[in-house]
Amino acid sequence: MADYDYDLFVIGAGSGGTRASRVAAAHGARVAVAEEYRVGGTCVIRGCVPKKLLVYGAHFAEDLKDARRFGWQVPSDCEFSWQTLRDNVLAEVDRLNGAYKKTLESHNVEIIDQRATVTGPHSVRLADGTEKTADKILIAVGAHPAVPSCPGHEHGITSNEAFHLDSIPKRVLIAGAGYIANEFAGVFHQFGAHVTLINRSKDILRGYDLTIRDRLLQISMMKGIEFRFDATFEGIEKQADGSLRVSMSNHAPIEVDLVMFATGRMPNTHGLGLEKAGVELDDHGAVKVDEDNRSTCPSIFAVGDVTNRVQLTPVAIREGQAFADTVFGNKPTRVDYDCIPAAVFSHPPMAGVGMTEAQAKQMLGSVRVYTSDFRPMKNVLAGREERALYKMVCDGDTGRVVGLHMIGPDVPEILQAAAIAVKAGLTKAQFDATVALHPTMSEELVLMR
Ligand code: NDP
């Protein structure tokens, strides 16, 4: 190892790269991490964290309205300043960026603020031309928003730019109907924009349980968000007044002030030099890895979104940790991908863990489904019609809970705890044996019929 500049050279200081760097360093490795943009990666800088803060900000639109029913005198001309929220969120991002850097520094990880590309199994080249060598290289460069190559696509933005807007546009069109589309639809709508989502297929949030996503669709439409399905993007034309005319298949063109693409994310492998080291990519450009995150080049590993396994921050962190413990900590560890809970921070949010009803029927044959469809008491007093829906999918033979799917206020907070029980393989009877905590929404989990 001593012949190399470092024991480990990490490319990308996002969630996976940062965890791997500091854990490997804690195990005694000499580590450098190269980052071309900002330490923290997508999640901290332009993803989960600032998005969640916007979701909190957006929720006040409804909370302030509801507050009147709870006796608060909220003036009807109550104003919202996007610039204030945006700047506060960006300042928080700066703070976190600083905290991430400090953590790396305190673990003696050398931070290199440059792009690095691979030149061989043990070597990288920095943007300034410097060559560095390492016994192991970890690719943790993440992914970027995919933008369809239609005419005028350059007039659209992605979630990257959404955090920096000068103002909230009056009319927003979002292409896609997945996580980012539904989360930002809620945010823009609560800030007063008219939002239209267009999607190539007939579905929103494919992969989530059908009943739950149908409920989101129904509530979103009730709030005034428009949906257009079976619509393939054909082009964007910028008009003299600055507005954008969007054409799509099967529907009339639509005029908006902002187009945002939320049509999936592609691994950041282009131009990274991986072919020089014999690192194979899959059809989407993702680094092919084995269960130990090792690529087809024995000294090069990859974790996180660049491997396109599960594009979620906590998974990237686990992969980074498992890599560092296995390779530098003499503690072989593999990530368990079973029963990963996930949430969509839409308005209201959705969350799910385990098999959907359809998956369970296909895999188990005998399935029992329990639901609770209720109006949370806060919504009742607020005069808000939105109903929450919880669904429990059980193995029909054993009663084991194999899936939990929810939509309603705070469900991501509730699901995290319930996911432990699903992961542990508990049965419906064991849920029912737990006394309800009254009055809460989560008590529905132990009262389902
Ligand atoms: P998603 O995969 O969630 O959704 C992509 C959407 O774009 C789908 O509606 C899909 O349609 C559509 N689409 C895909 N490709 C094309 C194309 N070529 N042309 C037109 N439409 C297309 O991606 P997102 O961009 O929303 O998010 C990326 C990933 O980031 C997510 O998968 C998730 O892993 C992660 N993420 C997680 C969050 C969370 O945990 N809360 C929040 C945000 C992102 P179709 O109906 O055909 O599938």
Automatic annotation (TrEMBL):
<dbReference type="Pfam" id="PF02852">
    <property type="entry name" value="Pyr_redox_dim"/>
</dbReference>
<keyword id="KW-1015">Disulfide bond</keyword>
<keyword id="KW-0520">NAD</keyword>
<dbReference type="GO" id="GO:0050661">
    <property type="term" value="F:NADP binding"/>
</dbReference>
<keyword id="KW-0547">Nucleotide-binding</keyword>
<feature type="active site" description="Proton acceptor">
    <location>
        <position position="438"/>
    </location>
</feature>
<keyword id="KW-0560">Oxidoreductase</keyword>
<feature type="domain" description="Pyridine nucleotide-disulphide oxidoreductase dimerisation">
    <location>
        <begin position="340"/>
        <end position="448"/>
    </location>
</feature>
<dbReference type="InterPro" id="IPR023753">
    <property type="entry name" value="FAD/NAD-binding_dom"/>
</dbReference>
<dbReference type="InterPro" id="IPR046952">
    <property type="entry name" value="GSHR/TRXR-like"/>
</dbReference>
<dbReference type="GO" id="GO:0004362">
    <property type="term" value="F:glutathione-disulfide reductase (NADPH) activity"/>
</dbReference>
<dbReference type="GO" id="GO:0050660">
    <property type="term" value="F:flavin adenine dinucleotide binding"/>
</dbReference>
<dbReference type="GO" id="GO:0045454">
    <property type="term" value="P:cell redox homeostasis"/>
</dbReference>
<dbReference type="InterPro" id="IPR036188">
    <property type="entry name" value="FAD/NAD-bd_sf"/>
</dbReference>
<feature type="domain" description="FAD/NAD(P)-binding">
    <location>
        <begin position="6"/>
        <end position="320"/>
    </location>
</feature>
<dbReference type="Pfam" id="PF07992">
    <property type="entry name" value="Pyr_redox_2"/>
</dbReference>
<dbReference type="InterPro" id="IPR004099">
    <property type="entry name" value="Pyr_nucl-diS_OxRdtase_dimer"/>
</dbReference>
<comment type="function">
    <text>Catalyzes the reduction of glutathione disulfide (GSSG) to reduced glutathione (GSH).</text>
</comment>
<keyword id="KW-0521">NADP</keyword>
<keyword id="KW-0274">FAD</keyword>
<feature type="binding site">
    <location>
        <position position="52"/>
    </location>
    <ligand>
        <name>FAD</name>
    </ligand>
</feature>
<comment type="subunit">
    <text>Homodimer.</text>
</comment>
<keyword id="KW-0285">Flavoprotein</keyword>
<keyword id="KW-0676">Redox-active center</keyword>
<dbReference type="InterPro" id="IPR006324">
    <property type="entry name" value="GSHR"/>
</dbReference>
<feature type="binding site">
    <location>
        <position position="305"/>
    </location>
    <ligand>
        <name>NAD(+)</name>
    </ligand>
</feature>
<protein>
    <recommendedName>
        <fullName>Glutathione reductase</fullName>
        <ecNumber>1.8.1.7</ecNumber>
    </recommendedName>
</protein>
<feature type="disulfide bond" description="Redox-active">
    <location>
        <begin position="43"/>
        <end position="48"/>
    </location>
</feature>
<dbReference type="InterPro" id="IPR012999">
    <property type="entry name" value="Pyr_OxRdtase_I_AS"/>
</dbReference>
<feature type="binding site">
    <location>
        <position position="264"/>
    </location>
    <ligand>
        <name>NAD(+)</name>
    </ligand>
</feature>
<feature type="binding site">
    <location>
        <begin position="176"/>
        <end position="183"/>
    </location>
    <ligand>
        <name>NAD(+)</name>
    </ligand>
</feature>
<dbReference type="InterPro" id="IPR016156">
    <property type="entry name" value="FAD/NAD-linked_Rdtase_dimer_sf"/>
</dbReference>
<dbReference type="GO" id="GO:0006749">
    <property type="term" value="P:glutathione metabolic process"/>
</dbReference>
<dbReference type="InterPro" id="IPR001100">
    <property type="entry name" value="Pyr_nuc-diS_OxRdtase"/>
</dbReference>
<dbReference type="GO" id="GO:0034599">
    <property type="term" value="P:cellular response to oxidative stress"/>
</dbReference>
<dbReference type="GO" id="GO:0005829">
    <property type="term" value="C:cytosol"/>
</dbReference>
<comment type="similarity">
    <text>Belongs to the class-I pyridine nucleotide-disulfide oxidoreductase family.</text>
</comment>
